[in-house]
Design brief:
Distance between the termini: 53 Å
Bound molecules: guanosine-5'-diphosphate-beta-L-fucopyranose
Number of strands: 12
Mean pLDDT: 96
Shape: globular
Order of helices and strands: EHEHEHHEHEEHEEEHEEHEHH
Structural class: alpha/beta
Helix content: 40-55%
Strand order of the largest sheet: 2-1-3-4-5-10
Length: 316
């Protein structure tokens, strides 16, 4: 491998998963930063689960840097329902891309993981070194195991082949291009949709899954994309980096915040038949902070922006 991986405005950059919430944010951030060659492929054009297609793409296009944001993602119910698909599809996507990147001389790669990789009951806030120190949360264990494999692949390709592949672990993300399907989405888009529909229908209650007691941290996806590019621009060659806002709130507090933003006056009704999942997963972001990066978009403002976009382009 070249000794000094470069990342400049002329680097040929492949963003895997460019239509997803994270991938599209990374493309926006790269375009805003003047990066001139951003390679993308739709799922129809390139099935990342098929190793032969991935190898053919890398051999033909020769990217020099990769943001691996393609994944099968979803909220607690999706993770707990499609367990086999979450472990298989994520394992295949990331293994194919990381291996083909190395085989084709890709210098730099950023692998997107998730905060659910950490033990269910580890000390809070969660530090990167807590990885693999305890049992995982059952509702998303398949997804978490796949993501842990991706982290370890980057680490061991770096050790054996001299690549410069690093992993970023985002907290719960929200933002443009989020998934609003109530069965498979994460909590924030689900509450935005449910509150909006309750407001339109004149409903006087809002259903919230679980007890409302779990705590979650939320980061706007534009901050996430900025952190990914920040690490590449600062020539960070390896390692695991938590990316978060540094504060969390209970699901009940989030529901009240969403009602305030949407303008819904309703009673919150908790469905304790639905799982709470991990009690808390606040990330310790001091490693990235020490390098000079912090999140910029406050949660309430971020939700207001996302709700405005939701009403403008997704719903009446
Ligand atoms: O965002 P969420 O689906 O995923 O759920 P996780 C967060 C919390 O919100 C859980 C509650 O306690 C849910 O029970 N919640 C309340 C709801 N109402 C709703 C609702 O209408 N929809 C949803 N979805 N949740 C995910 C992992 O865990 O975190 C993924 O499963 C990924 O793999 C992601 O790691 C970042 O935060 O519990």
């Amino acid at each position: 491998m070249n000794d000094t991986p470069s990342f400049s405005r002329d680097t040929r950059i492949f963003v895997a998963g460019h239509r997803g919430m994270v991938g599209s944010a990374i493309v926006r951030r790269l375009e805003a930063g003047g990066y001139r060659t951003i390679l993308t492929r739709t799922h129809r054009e390139l099935d990342l689960i098929r190793q032969d297609q991935v190898e053919a793409f890398f051999a033909a296009e020769k990217p020099e840097a990769v943001f691996l944001a393609a994944a099968k993602v979803g909220g607690i119910q999706a993770n707990n329902t499609y367990r086999a698909q979450f472990i298989y599809e994520n394992t295949m996507i990331q293994s194919n891309v990381i291996d083909a990147a190395w085989r084709n001389g890709v210098q730099r790669l950023v692998f997107l993981g998730s905060s659910c990789i950490y033990p269910r009951d580890c000390p809070q806030p969660i530090r990167e070194e807590y990885l693999l120190t305890g049992p995982l949360e059952q509702t998303n264990e398949p997804y978490a195991l796949a993501k842990i494999l991706g982290i370890k692949m980057c680490e061991n390709y770096n050790r054996q082949y001299g690549t410069a592949y690093l992993s970023v672990m985002p907290t719960n993300l929200y933002g443009p291009n989020d998934n609003y399907d109530l069965a498979t989405s994460h909590v924030l888009p689900a509450l935005i949709r449910k509150a909006h529909e309750a407001k339109l229908s004149g409903a006087t209650s809002l259903e919230v899954w679980g007890t409302g007691k779990p705590l979650r941290e939320f980061l706007h996806v534009d901050d996430m994309a900025d952190a990914c590019v920040f690490l590449m621009e600062n020539d960070v060659r390896e390692g695991l980096f938590n990316v978060g806002a540094g504060t969390d709130l209970t699901i009940a507090e989030l529901a009240r915040l969403v009602c305030r933003v949407v303008g819904l006056d309703a009673t919150i009704v908790f469905d304790s038949g639905k799982p709470d999942g991990t009690p808390r997963k606040l990330l310790d972001v001091s490693r990235l902070k020490a390098m000079g990066w912090t999140a910029k978009i406050p949660l309430e403002q971020g939700i207001r922006d996302v709700y405005a976009e939701y009403v403008r382009c997704c719903r009446p």
